[in-house]
Give the backbone structure.
Amino acid sequence: MTTRYFYLLCSLLLSMVTYGQRAVFKDKFDDAIPVLNFGTFHMGYTPDATKVDFDKKDKKNQQEVHAIAKLLADFKPTVIVVERVPERNEALLAEYQSYLKTPEMEFKSLSEIQLLAYEVGRLSGATRIYGIDFHENYNYALFRTLQPKTDSTTIPQYDKLVEAYAKTRNEKTMGVKERLKLMNHPQSLDYLINVNADLLTYVSTRGNAEGAQEAAKFYHRNLVMFSNLNQLPLTKNDRVFILMGAGDTAFFADFFRRSPKYKQVDTFTYLK
């Protein structure tokens, strides 16, 4: 091969690599709405299969959560969005307004909404709050019960990878911020999509797709939640803070990445 053709080939390969790394067209509106999409463990009651041991009434825990709220409030949101069904938005707003007037108020039940979302809103001066949740049950445990399986090894092998990592850390000694940093890491968010949905596509009997049918329910739930978000009266002047269980945050991260209407900010710009 002559030197000329060698450099021509190298130039062609380089242009192909570069083309694969750059956007081929503009896919965000000029006035796309900034969103801080923040995932958390549930600090109060949750029907989720996996729960985090957290004493929501412990003053030290509350102080840690409020310190995190102060960091996140630097995003300066104008709208707070939480994991509560829209049918309760009137009651949600009334409770939030009471909190703005009396931050020391007592709640009948405490969760991440009262401990974190309300405080982010209070510190940033946000006056609007909405719930976008949608309830849809599905069978988390299908792998354990479905017989005969066409694939009985993929999920146990994946579990071993996760267990190997879990042995390297002690959640009981982790502070709230460390837990939330871990939960919002991109690999953790991918893990949550895996264990909540995608791994179910490996669960089936021959010629069927029982696991995929269950996984579709979780996808459907999050799509409806995203539709609920898209029905809110948001404008180009808004900045939106969204607080949900990290599994939902993971799905929304993908939705926001592709959405022309929203631009997702880096969580770790604020969670320092």
Observations:
- The longest helix spans residues 210-230.
